[in-house]
């Protein structure tokens, strides 16, 4: 049984999908959270000067989606066929731009710019994205085939962040609401959601 | 009748890594190139409203990296085990930032701003990126394990695009990366494709 060591800051951010996947697969791992003060010393030791990184079998993997895909595979949540896996990849990649815009809005320090960005996101960016993804989600509550894959968990994670700012975002989206419900009920995830450290983002 | 149908504009752009992978593995596919004028009619029929798309086994995939990874799997170029696949993924994902900067620079209409972006890329972003990637490639000239993977092909494609915009010997003093380029060029399918592919502006 390989030992997994995840290193990231003490935030959900780009590490949380990885942590959710470890939880879903009930795979033990070391969840290392570093302080910003310790980052300058660690940075040159990472492959690309960024975290999260995953250490496994003497190797170091970086890039959060590459790590997440690796953990999804270990957890049996990648998708059953190459085509299913490609569909999961495509749905994940398709959400990246929206995720970035949300992040920019949250990180905006100027209060009036932030309000503007929030309005733009809530009225222009989010609705077409959710409408599109409602169509992608099956009425059984899965994005790919007939069983849970990491694309369902990634969607849950993204909406976990977004609904903190837009609580009623999923009102009226039956399929997407089903996806969220199913993910929350995965035993390992339910446990993690109860126990995980509370962080601002 | 090929089982794969790739649709994109008549450009290398976001489709070229996919075409290179089909070529590397000798997999036949339909390489559809549409005119700009035909795009509005096709757009609503695509999964997310953009190209490239790949039609295969009755399904339609979008997102160029997702498509490339799928083709790499079918081509046996994805990495030999879990860790190699993760390495290849990380190498490909790590190139997105510099690619984004290149695209922003190309699209920038303000000449002064464009020069600033160009200088930032050639003096800062590109050298930093190449230093990191020299350390991530092994002395045999592969990013994932000891044989060709889609990460090597993707890197080759990026460097070709960089050279077109920033002439110069960027890989001087970077023997691992020089080997990666040589390994990709030595693949017979890729060598043939590069000679025969349609000319396009970008």
TrEMBL record, chain B:
Q: Give the InterPro entries listed for this entry.
A: Glutathione-S-Trfase_C-like (IPR010987), Glutathione-S-Trfase_C_sf (IPR036282), Glutathione_S-Trfase (IPR040079), Glutathione_S-Trfase_N (IPR004045), GST_C (IPR004046), GST_superfamily (IPR050213), Thioredoxin-like_sf (IPR036249)
* Any one GO molecular function term: glutathione transferase activity
**Keyword set, alphabetical order:** Transferase
Name the record gives this protein = glutathione transferase
What's the Enzyme Commission number for this chain? 2.5.1.18
Record lineage: Eukaryota, Metazoa, Chordata, Cephalochordata, Leptocardii
Which Pfam families does the record cross-reference, listed alphabetically? GST_C_3, GST_N
GO BP annotations of the record are: glutathione metabolic process
Q: Which reaction does it catalyse?
A: RX + glutathione = an S-substituted glutathione + a halide anion + H(+)
Record domain GST C-terminal: where: 81-202
Residue ranges constituting the GST N-terminal domain according to the UniProt record: 2-79
Q: Which domain of life is it from?
A: Eukaryota
Question: What's the gene?
Answer: HPGDS
């Amino acid at each position: 049984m390989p030992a997994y060591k995840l290193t990231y800051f003490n935030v959900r951010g780009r590490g949380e999908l990885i942590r959710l996947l470890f939880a879903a697969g009930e795979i033990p791992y070391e969840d290392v959270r570093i302080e910003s003060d310790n980052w300058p010393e660690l940075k040159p030791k990472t492959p690309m000067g960024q975290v999260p990184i995953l250490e496994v079998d003497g190797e170091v993997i970086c890039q959060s989606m590459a790590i997440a895909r690796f953990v999804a595979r270990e957890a049996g949540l990648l998708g059953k066929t190459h085509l299913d896996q490609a569909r999961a990849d495509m749905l994940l990649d398709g959400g990246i731009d929206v995720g970035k815009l949300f992040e920019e809005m949250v990180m905006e320090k100027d209060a009036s710019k932030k309000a503007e960005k929030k309005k733009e996101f809530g009225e222009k960016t989010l609705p077409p994205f959710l409408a599109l993804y409602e169509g992608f989600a099956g009425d059984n509550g899965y994005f790919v085939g007939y069983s849970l894959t990491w694309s369902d968990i990634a969607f849950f994670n993204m909406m976990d962040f977004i609904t903190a700012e837009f609580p009623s975002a999923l009102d009226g989206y039956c399929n997407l609401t089903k996806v969220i419900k199913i993910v929350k009920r995965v035993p390992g995830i339910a446990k993690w959601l109860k126990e995980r450290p509370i962080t601002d983002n | 009748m090929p089982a794969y149908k790739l649709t994109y504009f008549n450009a290398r752009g976001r489709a070229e890594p996919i075409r290179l992978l089909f070529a590397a593995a000798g997999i036949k596919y339909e390489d559809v190139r549409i005119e700009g004028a035909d795009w509005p009619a096709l757009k609503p029929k695509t999964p997310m409203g953009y190209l490239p798309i790949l039609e295969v086994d009755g399904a339609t995939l979008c997102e160029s990296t997702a498509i490339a990874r799928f083709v790499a799997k079918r081509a046996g170029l994805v990495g030999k085990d879990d860790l190699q696949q993760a390495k290849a993924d990380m190498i490909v994902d790590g190139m997105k930032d510099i690619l984004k900067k290149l695209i922003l620079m190309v699209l920038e209409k303000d000449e002064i701003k464009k020069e600033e972006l160009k200088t930032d890329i050639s003096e800062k972003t590109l050298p930093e990126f190449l230093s990191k990637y020299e350390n991530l490639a092994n002395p045999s000239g592969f990013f994932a394990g000891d044989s060709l993977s889609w990460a090597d092909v993707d890197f080759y494609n990026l460097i070709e695009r960089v050279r077109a915009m920033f002439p110069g010997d960027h890989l001087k003093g970077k023997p691992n990366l020089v080997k990666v380029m040589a390994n990709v060029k030595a693949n017979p399918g890729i060598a043939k494709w590069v000679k025969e592919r349609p000319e396009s502006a970008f």
